[in-house]
Amino acid sequence: MSEIPAAPAERLVLGTMVFGTLVDEPTSFALLDRFVDAGGRWLDTADCYSFWLSRTGHGGQSEAVLGRWLAARPGLRDRVLISTKFGAEPIDATDPASRTGLSRDAIRTQLGDSLRRLGTDHVDLAWAHVEDRAVPVEETADAMAELVEDGTAVRVGASNHPAWLVERARRHAISQGRTPWTALQHSFSYLHPRPFELPAGQGHRFGMLTDEHLDLAVVEGLETWAYTPLLSGAYDNPAKPVPDAYDHPGTTRRLAALDKVAAELGATRGQVVLAWLAGTSPTIRPILGGSKPDQLQAALDAMTLDLTDELRAVLDAA
């Protein structure tokens, strides 16, 4: 399991999903500049971001904005780490379910298009975005290992996959002497939904990080990333209630614990959640999907909170 970096901002990933769609280019550039100036390094995107917000029904806007930002700042590519995903871009703009998938040819084509939009010759972490049962996972594992072998990806990982499928892909790659998936990306937060219930808006059957994923990460030494860690603002924004799937007694106890720790630290609930995630064991790297400067600053400040063992115990015991 990767250790948390020494620089506080390096604990955080800046998610750029709505850059180029909901967030205009000047604001995107300003957020990226602020993040890097604060010491942040990881930028997360995908080739399908954000097809559901675009006029064409296809994605690529986020990667294109990142590419133009990097092109306008020569030398900055060496200071940032780029993570992108493939496999979920619609083939047919009128049918979001017509995904490009994870065949060998599709992977190579998709990453090639991503590199062109990003204006770089490699990404630091390439993800299989969603599982593709139409393709043998061994083919996917081999194709992604090839990306490392040809230098277009430094590492490879899986997002929104069941734990057993991740392990099958890893065992195959390792048995062939090739690079396996070394990272997981799922939705995870301090609050947990009811068992067997997907929160509204969670479109992936295996999108939620489970205890099996965490156990696999510990045993195999996998890095774990968490998207939607702030439940789209529900912790602190009264206009965004906690989703119904989280309506159970455990949530009441956990919100009370959050309030206690937040008051102790002079922080918001969301900041405590981010600090808790970044310092948990195994390490879970939170992805901030904020679209406003104040949201980014609050997240950066959260990475500097002194969440003592005593305060962490209050959160963990709830």
Automatic annotation (TrEMBL):
A UniProt-annotated Pfam family: Aldo_ket_red
Domain NADP-dependent oxidoreductase: from-to ranges: 11-314
Domain of life of the source: Bacteria
InterPro entries xrefs: AKR_Detox_Biosynth, NAD(P)_OxRdtase_dom_sf, NADP_OxRdtase_dom
Cellular component annotations (GO), alphabetically ordered: cytosol
PANTHER family the record matches: NADH-SPECIFIC METHYLGLYOXAL REDUCTASE-RELATED, OXIDOREDUCTASE-RELATED
UniProt name for this protein: Aldo/keto reductase
Provenance organism: Antribacter soli
